[in-house]
Specification:
By secondary structure, the protein is of the alpha/beta class. The chain contains 17 helices and 12 strands. The chain is 46% helix and 14% strand. Strands 5, 6, 7, 8, 9, 10, 11 and 12 form an 8-stranded mixed beta sheet that branches. Helix 5 runs antiparallel to helix 6 and helix 6 runs antiparallel to helix 7. The chain is globular. The structure holds S-adenosylmethionine. The site of S-adenosylmethionine has 17 residues, from helix 13 and strand 6. It holds the Pfam family Methyltr_RsmB-F.
């Protein structure tokens, strides 16, 4: 490819990054929402646009701090977002001449931004010489108040500050092996974490050795712990409720359990089916509302309920900006209804693992405490897990936070509780 074609692709990726960032900041869209502009790009440019928009969301407060002294009045949001993206590129070591020139071109060509090309040029030229050096010393961006307030109340300010540092750092690439985790770690050049997750700094998943043969799937080390706590035995009948895209289904099936995977979204189940096909593992797949699924007699049920997903901000920096917490009350009610329904499907003596990728106790510890009030004959179980210190366990279950294992790359925030029905 010629240099000129390369430059055009880079420009298209920047334009798409601007559209993504403006979708999140102005319309509450998520980076994973369908985007026709992104679909028109080659895969590597799509990845570049998503990476850039993600970096700008992580570092938005820092970019604003660098920009503030150079802006006498607030420019339109699309221009501000272009400046933020350029700032982040400069701060992360992008060559000043190319970055400034490209962003001026993007702003000049935009219908709503064209009149601000001069301003963009002037501001970026002032910022370029200092951005990279000043960036690391700028304060760690804070979560927005709708989320920060309940988290400070639950975990205290120092813990929330540590979580915010983890959000800024982003997430490594975690893999779960279908078979021998140590062999997978060696094959892909990753680190084996206690418990069996293989961790890589980053990389293109589909290019890793063993991908086509289904030797592994992508799954954060925290998410992998729910199935480890459920500890499926070969031949057991296990129901995976809210199963798509299927990381936990694959773990249960790999352990030899007879798995039924239920999810409301047929589209997301398509990814689960593809994962089963790639790994050669088997499960029955049912597209249905979990609350309407009425087959009883399960040895064990894993309920990975829909939640605020606030434990995944390292990988989804758009979430705190695009959302405002308005949906959480409804999710909490749904989670409680799903726990009661799952308990009604479990055979006597069976176990229910309830988990959410949320940092909010109302979607975790409180759900288990309230389930125990509604069903006093249940008991909470604890599992001995390699790599899990005693103090991550609370009365209701295992609490995982993004600031845990910080030196090794962190983990998603999760709550996992295990309830045993009387025999
Ligand atoms: C946290 S995700 C599940 C992740 C999955 N367990 C995994 O390990 O890959 C929550 C899932 O709940 C599903 N869901 C939401 N409401 C549901 C309902 N009423 N019944 C069944 N599934 C539902 C969503 O489609 C989504 O796939």
């Amino acid at each position: 490819m010629t240099d000129r074609a390369d430059a055009q692709d880079a420009l298209a990726a920047r334009r798409a990054a601007l559209s993504l960032l403006t979708g999140v900041t102005a319309e509450g869209r998520l980076l994973s929402d369908p985007s026709p502009m992104l679909d028109r790009l080659a895969p590597e440019d799509r990845a570049r646009a998503q990476r850039l928009a993600g970096a700008a969301l992580r570092g938005m407060a820092r970019a604003d701090a660098l920009l503030a002294p150079h802006l006498r009045k607030a420019p339109p949001l699309a221009v501000r977002n272009a400046l933020r993206l350029a700032c982040v590129e400069l701060a992360l070591g992008g060559a000043a001449h190319g970055v400034v020139g490209s962003w001026v071109e993007v702003v000049k060509a935009g219908k709503r931004t064209g009149a601000h090309a001069g301003l963009t040029n002037a501001v970026l030229r002032k910022i370029a010489p200092e951005a990279e050096a000043r960036w690391p010393a700028l304060p760690v961006p804070k979560l927005p108040p709708w989320l920060r307030r309940p988290l400070v109340e639950a975990w205290g300010r120092p813990a929330v500050e540590a979580m915010e540092a983890a959000h800024l750092a982003g997430a490594p690439l975690d893999l779960t092996a279908r078979g021998d985790a140590a062999a997978l770690a060696q094959a892909v050049g990753g680190t084996l974490l206690p418990g069996g997750t293989v961790r890589l700094e980053a990389g293109q998943v589909t290019a890793l050795p063993g991908y086509e043969e289904g030797a592994f799937w992508v799954q954060d080390t925290a998410a992998a712990m729910a199935a480890r706590i459920l500890a499926p035995q070969a031949g057991e009948a296990v129901l995976d409720l809210c199963a798509a895209p299927g990381g936990k289904t694959l773990q249960l099936a790999a352990a030899g359990a007879r798995v039924t995977a239920v999810d409301l979204s047929d589209q997301r189940l398509g990814r689960l089916r593809a994962n089963l096909a790639r790994t050669g593992l088997e499960a029955e797949v049912v597209a249905q509302d979990a609350l309407a699924f009425d087959r009883t007699g399960w040895d064990a049920i894993l309920l990975d309920a829909p939640c605020s997903a606030t434990g995944t901000i390292r990988r989804h920096p758009d979430l705190p900006v695009a959302r405002d917490g308005a949906e959480i009350g409804g999710l909490i009610d749904l989670q409680a209804a799903m726990i009661d329904h799952a308990l009604s499907l479990l055979k006597p003596g069976g176990r229910l693992v309830f988990c959410t990728c949320s940092l909010i106790p109302d979607e975790g510890e409180v759900q288990i405490a309230e389930a125990l009030e509604r069903h006093p004959d249940l008991s909470v179980e604890r599992a001995a897990l390699e790599g899990v210190p005693e103090d991550w366990w609370g009365e209701e279950g295992l609490r995982l936070r993004p600031d845990y294992l910080a030196e090794a790359g962190g983990m998603d925030g999760f709550f996992i509780g295990c309830l045993r029905k009387p025999g």
